[in-house]
Amino acid sequence: MNKSGIGQAVRQQEKTLKLLGIPYTMDSRDDFDIIHLNTIFPDSRIMSIMSKRKSKKVIYYAHSTMEDFKNSFRGSNLLAPILKKWIIYCYNSADIVITPTEYSKMLLESYGLKRPIFSLSNGVDIDYFERNYDARKRFRDKYDLKEQEKAIISVGHYIERKGILDFVKIAEQMPEYQFYWFGYTNSHLVPHSVREIIEKSLPNLHFPGYVNRNDLRDAYCGSDLFLFLTHEETEGIVLLEALASKIPVLIRDIPVYKDWLSDGETVYKGITIYDFKEKITQILEGSLPDITKSGYRIAEQRDLKLIGRLLINIYDQ
pTM for the complete prediction? Predict the structure, then answer.
């Protein structure tokens, strides 16, 4: 979990509580008033039951849906309906459910959950991801990139839902640019189609694997485009990090981004391989306007300090 978006969400919750001056513990044996649960693993469900027995308030952060479980790991599509029942069972054990976007809230409401559902972004630490020259230089030195070379990055597990198949296809068809996919998934967990494509040997395609938070910040600052081809998300923390880093962002046009990311205003969007290739060229060659300042304002609206105040309002309710 530590290497996933959920792990990052937990770390951001910790920082949010620190910013608010609210004491917290990661040790379940300590005393507490409210428990935050972030996974749908059995141990979280057990913690929910135990906490309710002690009259503690339970907040379930709903990062998982049936929709974003599909097209991920081997057998995930077969298991998705079963997972949906388990998700309902877990989230109904809470006092309230918090989910990152209005889109994911709509999905959960369609499940018939019996608990109040609040929409609250995972947030982003805009100070940490502030763009700076030293970070850019570290990234480009590490990967031996000349200043005139254009680097395109994406971040996520090696799963079809994240858009890795299209990412590799685009890299294959655009040899003039360097492509980097940060993240890792055990090859035994993914379908043959994904295993086959990540083993493809292309001189401009790189899989550095999982990197630490500092190296990822350097990658945002040192690259020229964040290409996020995910087919389904509840929000996408890495997208917020890219916006906070003032890097051009090109995403797949999917429902979760409909109401808060505008094509050509805060990000660029595409649907087909042709769309993505055309916009990549236009962004990197400067024929499309630089909209990174507008994108950064989206990140500012989701800064952890603001998210903390909204969380307090939810506590009060």
Answer: 0.93
Check residue 74 and give its pLDDT. 73
For the chain, give the percent of residues with pLDDT over 90: 81
Average pLDDT over residues 76-80: 84
pLDDT at 1: 53
Helix orientation angle between 5-20 and 304-316, rounded to the nearest 10 degrees: 80
Report d(CA 159, CA 193) in Å as an integer. 10
pLDDT at 79: 85
* Residues paired with residue 228 on neighbouring β-strands, in sequence order: 251
Query: Of 305, 309, 302, 255, nearest to 122 (Cα)?
Result: 302
pLDDT recorded at residue 4: 67
Q: Dig out the tokens for 102 from the structure.
A: 């209005």
> For the residues 197-203, what does the mean pLDDT come to?
87
Residue 108 near residue 91 (C-beta atoms within 8 A): yes
Residues comprising the chain, all counted: 317
3-state SS track over the chain: CCCCHHHHHHHHHHHHHHHHCCCCCCCCCCCCCEEEECCCCHHHHHHHHHHHHCCCEEEEECCCCHHHHCCCCCCHHHHHHHHHHHHHHHHCCCCEEEECCHHHHHHHHHCCCCCCEEECCCCECCCCCCCCHHHHHHHHHHCCCCCCCCEEEEECCCCHHHCHHHHHHHHHHCCCCEEEEECCCCHHHCCHHHHHHHCCCCCCEEEEECCCHHHHHHHHHHCCEEEECCCCCCCCHHHHHHHHCCCCEEEECCHHHCCCCCECCCEEEECCHHHHHHHHHHHHCCCCCCCHHHHHHHHHCCEHHHHHHHHHHHHHC
Q: pLDDT at position 199, please?
A: 84
Amino acid letter for position 187: S
Beta strands 151-155; 57-61: pairing state: unpaired
Query: Tokens 């200043």 sit at which residue?
Result: 147
